[in-house]
TrEMBL record:
Annotated organism of origin: Eutreptiella gymnastica
CDD domains on file: SF1_C_Upf1
GO CC entries: nuclear RNA-directed RNA polymerase complex
Protein name (Swiss-Prot/TrEMBL): DNA2/NAM7 helicase-like C-terminal domain-containing protein
Region (Disordered): 321-357
One GO biological process term: regulatory ncRNA-mediated heterochromatin formation
Domain annotation DNA2/NAM7 helicase-like C-terminal: ranges: 6-124
UniProt cross-references to InterPro entries, sorted A to Z: DNA2/NAM7-like, DNA2/NAM7-like_C, P-loop_NTPase, SF1_C_Upf1
Amino acid sequence: MGTQVFFWTHNEAEEAHKGSQANKHEVTLVLGLTTYLLDNGLLPEQITAVTPYVGQLRALKAALSEHNLGIDVQTVDSFQGGENDIIILSLVRTKALTQFIKREDRMVVALSRARFAMYIFGNASLLEKSGSPHWERAMQLLKQPWGGVRPRLGQALPLCCSRHPTSVAAAYPGRPFPSKFCPNVCGESYEGCDNDNHICTKPCHPGTHEKCPYPCEKILDCGHPCKRKCWQDCDCMVWTEVELGCSHQEMVGYDEDKDEIRYRVVPHVQTVKCGESPLECDRVVPKVRSECMHEVHVPCNVDPNKEACHLCEEEERREAEEAARQKAEEERRALEAQQAREEAEKKAREAREEAEK
């Protein structure tokens, strides 16, 4: 996020809701912010949405449940004594404040429950003119930029990449939250991988990196380099040819017991009439293709290299799907970047026109 404390001001009116008050606009904003936070690695149990009104409580619970977001929602009164890492405060009222909101004890509860970050939705102008010294003081503090640079009050929520803080964007009412606005390469290490050169080279994205996809290449006790993926358990995948007791050749793993394999009996028995030649054995057996070293199950008399390898076909299919997915992602990111540029140009043009007036 661009700031740990932010007041997202708006003037969309509340409405009566089953004997209480609710604000659909704030429900939409809370839903978007919650989705963004969860997509960027926060857990549902780290976030609590708080509101003064039971009507808004019901509306928030319904919307969050519909999208399976699973965060806690409380009224200000029921949350006394509670706290959480992230607090999202929905004030609801934009037309007029009641004594219910102005009370200092409720304000203290509402603004003191966050351990790390708090995001408030409401009408800043209304609170500034509320006649409540506590809210007026709070609004004065929120007008002071966080760190002397980033705003803490406005009509658009500032966002920044958690991995690349110089990559920034903003969320505007009525538009989807920017999900992947950072143009940088991810650059994160993989969990459990001790090779500093193994970093994620995908475009910057949320989430963890559990399985390192790089080749392992550690030297095994047999002297061969491990050919598995870095996250997989090491073993030797080098194959060697062994002559069986019947004078046939068989490809086996380098670290397998050669004597056990060499004298293995293959009980493929045929009964033929006297004077007839033995038929070609069609018993299905496992064989290793020398082209890819994958094991295939083929009739005993069939050369495995002449049969299609379903493992190779599956790998090719996955690679094609991944290439298509990456292409689609690149096209989507390019479209988002173009839209962002057009939006920036539009705002700059509007600013110039306003200045010329």
